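Translate structure to sequence.
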């Protein structure tokens, strides 16, 4: 038997089409919906995702509501989040 856990309905609800994820991995965030989709894919609330990226919730909301676009280092962090979502989750764990 395999030790890979079975996918749950919650896992499926967080799913993202491969074509969208590949676009986000290239840093091509076209709208705020892309940022929100990435956050949802990782499974984090706005406050937790903002904390993981070390940005303010206000900044994240501005991105998700198309008032501003991520640039420079923020865009690089979003690319990393799209490529390696576990790293984002690990960044929230306390350091021993």
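Result:
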């Amino acid at each position: 038997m395999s030790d890979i856990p079975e996918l749950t309905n919650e896992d499926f609800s967080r799913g993202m089409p491969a074509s969208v994820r590949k676009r986000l991995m290239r840093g091509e965030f076209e709208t705020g919906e892309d940022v929100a989709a990435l956050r949802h894919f990782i499974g984090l609330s706005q406050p937790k995702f903002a904390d993981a990226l070390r940005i303010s919730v206000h900044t994240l909301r501005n991105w998700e509501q198309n008032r501003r676009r991520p640039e420079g280092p923020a865009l690089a962090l979003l690319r990393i989040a799209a490529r390696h979502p576990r790293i984002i989750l690990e960044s929230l764990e306390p350091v021993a």
